[in-house]
Amino acid sequence: MPGDIDHELIAKSLQGNEKAFRDLIGRHHGAAYAVIRGILGDSDEGEDVLQQVYIKIHRGLPSFRGEARFSTWVYQIARNEALNAAKRRRFETTPIEDVVLAAPETTSPERAYGQRELGERMEAAMARLDESHRLALELRYMGDRSYHEIAEMMQIPLGTVKTYIHRGKAQLKEILEREAAPGRPHEEGRAT
Prior knowledge:
The chain is mostly helical.
């Protein structure tokens, strides 16, 4: 069971085994990053917050009681750190032009441009989602978490997770379709 592996790694980490701690962090990196990215959206700031999360986990590990799953504890730390960072930056924003997804080096320049443009559109659309929908989507598709894990981490019922993901995907589709449509002429305004 995943929890057993976590408890084993926690015990070894508490005995000073740094490799066990790195393995423990590695198991939960994707979910922690997804939570942070879901709240902040900015990858540079997200990396800084992620480092703070790792420090808090390392320092707080001796006080982890195991009453909840370790993944839930990591989620709470990541969420709190991301929310604190969001409060600190207040109205500072990163222009969407600065957000670039790396394209594979083997692609043509046209394809790389198309992938970057799609990434920018997706990033902008994700930023417009409700926080709960965005977090659920980020945990599912970037954090590679199951619906059950997301429910536990977000401390919401399983049905609510499914609803958030379904509605989030529907909102994303609607936003992306609406943004793709502005270049088309409106049928109502055309003369016959």
